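Re: [help] complex structure
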Amino acid sequence: MSTVTVPSLISAYSAETKKLLSQLTLEEKAKLSSGKDFWRLQGIERFNLPSIMVTDGPHGLRKQPDDSDHIGLNDSVPATCFPTASGLAASWNRELLAEVGNALADECLAEKVSVLLGPGVNIKRNPLGGRNFEYFSEDPYLSGEMSIAWIDGLQSKGIGCSLKHYAVNNHESSRMITDVIIDERTLREIYLPAFEFSVKKTQPWTVMSAYNKVDGTYLAENRKFLTDILQQEWGYQGLVVTDWGGNHNRVLGIKNGQGLEMPSSGDINTNRIIRAVKCGDLSMEELDKSVGRVLDLIIRSRDAFQPTHTFSVDSHHALARKAAEEASVLLKNDGGLLPLSTTDNIAVIGEFAKNTRYQGSGSSQIIPTKLEQPYDAIAKLIDSDGLSNICYCKGYHLDETEDQQLISEALKIAQNSDKVIVILGLPTSYESEGFDRKHMHLPKVQLDLIAALAPVYEKLVIVLQNGSPVELPFANQVPAILEAYLGGQAGASALANIIFGQVNPSGKLAETFPVSIDDVPSQPWFPGESRQVQYRESIWVGYRYFDTAEVPVLFPFGHGLSYTTFEYSDLTIQDNHKSNDENTFDLTSVDDIVVSFNLKNTGNMTGAEVAQLYIGQQNSSVHRPKKELKNFAKVSLAPGESQRITMQLCKRDFAFWCSKNHKWRVETDQFNLFIGASISDIRLCDVISIQGDNPKGAQDVSLSAYFSPKAQNYTEQDFQNLLGKDIPPALPSKPFQLNSTMREVKDTWIGGKLFQIGFNKMTEKLGEMTEQDKLVINAIFDEMTLRQLVAMSDGKFKPKVMDSLIHIMNKDWIKLLCGAGVRSE
Ligand code: BGC
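Output below.
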């Protein structure tokens, strides 16, 4: 891949930014490098630079007018809650994502928020990732396409995004301190492309660096990631902002491409920057390069707001419903049980029916403008026929108290009904920012309910409300399963519309549903040791593994049923200029290959199909998946209607990352090209010959272990061969240091007190908390570091005091007496 030459950045800045850089004092520049408070940047009044606001995101606006926090505790102004990213991605609909981005921008304009902190494009390496609900997919191309559309929709209205969390932040446990050990090719092919495509196509106004380290260096100060790759290779012109409290060494950050520390750390880092410039550790040019990007952001945001900006709560609610309809995936529909008729006698079972789960928890949690409940939405549809043929029972307790009585009630109402809808899902305490899931099961009380209902009752429709895959041990015993994801505030009417056929489902899985978590290739190394995680499974993530290794799954990537049927025919493959009958393409001279085929709706209901294009190299010199997604199209067709679908492929689509030469490489070889309704439902295929810029090489024997993927059997030696070096030792957790977490120190007397005081402080204004809330907050607080405690205390917690406390925790009396500094690694 060619390297983009970024002009000396200062000369690329606008005339106003350049002028400002020549007028601002050192103190002002240092101040601009950190936030003003939790959500605002510094402004400089004498230059008419306003203090602009940034807030979460990404599936709705979380503007906190009063107390601030980054873990979803305090209230925010009501905003439209759209489905979370896992649902949005299941729509595979670029236009829809752009519409959602647009609507979010309108709400930002109305609330005078300049930057919305999203989208999250981290890859779902393992279904247990606590924040998977907030990410799009296990596939980098699909994640990138969804992100590009969302960002375009948002930024086209003059509101910036924050593409996050850059990079390889794929789990929550120890997210502040873990060091990701990953080989170069896996990084380039799996974990970076969604960022790369988004940066190259949309120039996000900001990129948020992740909390973790890669190869021993925190992302917030990682030159390779922030400068070499992001700026030099991809040509990024915007501002890199730290994840909240994710700054490590502020001066190093500025030198290496980090523009803005968020939130404010009081004067701590401002003073460090001033001192560094004064003593020559940081040059004024380095500081200018960095501050110029902050100024550019403020200037481009300055004039966005008009006093007249408002948005229609109702039309955004309707858009949220449309998004939820497209996000729902019909996983199973034996005998065409769905759609149901509104004249059927319906039993609705499950506490989620009256207490819906519609968003995840943590920093993305918002207050919706309205909230529908599934039971009400179903009853409304049924009642519109003038018949009152619906009954409800709870079936299980969300707090997981076992209750045989509820199961007996469920059996009773099921027996007196024609059809039974059971709403299941994951309670908040099962998936959240701040911790990973422990297993892939549904709560036992829900499984017990189905175990009682399924054998005696045939007409069961299971609806799932969850942000990431679950094991479904009952999948073979029930005829219909609808994955509704976390469908946002209008998710309830969306699912009712699908169940009763007002809407034809068109969602497809953007992730694999494995049979069991033990089948997942990363499982033995997930989430790793607290200070190191090895990505030993290499590129074998999601369907790339299951499809290539032929491991059965519960539901495959790209799968989703419709109430109609589609026929695929007449595949042709041409280059952009002329027809090519021999199916040979010389990619050294032609960059675009055009794939086209016919798609016909052969059923009797209007419906949309997501047609997917995969390719796979036949004899590669490195291990490659049998199929990789390279394009897709979502098309709505009336009964009997057909359309010719056209998709493009470019040279990069055929390439793998060559770790030896550090670049993309296309080998001359045969490639299989597949058009499918899912990864495992291939409808058309062909073989094409590609003339690449490299001859087909012999297989690299040192990597033989990786050629036929064996989920869990990669030895340390295999991984070292892949890395091309030894696995570095993980940092010890003792002696304690500034990057020790609360979890690591809380067994010491001082650590315990810090935990208690911090926890109380965080929660003091929240009033009565449920046990589940406490669990979530505890877990999030566990992962905070001592460095963050100081940085996020708004100057109240002095660094020197923390140094002394750490010496005491380490019983290092000499360092305590000398007032020595503390390690920060
Ligand atoms: C999260 C970010 C979020 C930020 C601000 C962090 O803890 O990782 O995704 O945008 O807080 O709330």
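The chain has a mean pLDDT of 94.
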